[in-house]
Amino acid sequence: MNLRRLLMPLTTADVTTVAFLLFLSLLSLLFCTRVAEWFILVPVNILFIGAVYYTAHRCANTPAAPPWINGVHTWYPIALILYVYKQTSFLVRPIRQVDYDQTLISIDRWIFHLNPTQWVHQFAHPVLTEILQLAYASYYVLFIVLFIELYRRGDTAVMNTAIFLVIYGFFLSYIGYLLVPAVGPRFTLHDFRMNDLELPGLWLTPYLRAFINTGGGIPPGATDPLLFVQRDAFPSGHTELTLVAIWIAFNTKVKSRWYLLGIGSLLIAATIYMRYHYVVDDIGGMCVFVFAIWSGLRIDAWWRKKSIA
Fold this sequence. Notes:
73% of the residues lie in helices and 0% in strands. The chain is mostly helical.
């Protein structure tokens, strides 16, 4: 069968997902002596690729595909983001074996002549900490709110483009983690074990902080969290993808756009205040955001043209 005919049922998000899973599988195979989980990751990736093609083919070529097939094909990229994020974390340390925090700290000091996360501590207050920790923890909620509203509109083309731009942005940030591994200022410029004492909130902060730590690879009660934490500081995916979500919201004029702008602005501020990122991480995230939108729209338009030609 013609390769072009095989690929045509795939949306831009499908193609991007398949390409990135193949990329991660290739890295696992190339560094199999270092990546202990390669024999699990590669087969699972192949299964995911098969599932992506199967659902895309059914939706494109079956006049009345079961609703669950359409639902899976629409929403799977969002769920897959977490799987790919965890897989990337398995690869970063074995492949790179170096952290670039001191370089990032030096850049911040060169720009500001101080360490921004230490300077901003003078404004710390439990109420502000609670608000910003809540905003930071709402990261994935932004995308749920955005995509539910777009889905209810029933405009499949707009929905597909929005999902593609988001997963494309995520994958670009994961490449950044592979290129510039870093743990962030809460481990280098501050004592990680003192965060709860130095940045106390009101009610939810310690629980949200513990949840985020666990999601970042740190098991509860770890005596040396640096052995476990994921190297995902540069670029700031929180900054990049929050900007992507805000851009999509205003470009599509969803009703929730002002909510997303408000929460998103607090979230970006929280990356520094809560000591998760250096300022240069946020600058990097902004640059990747611009590239993701600029290149992503062109890639999406090109693939759509190819798929209907």
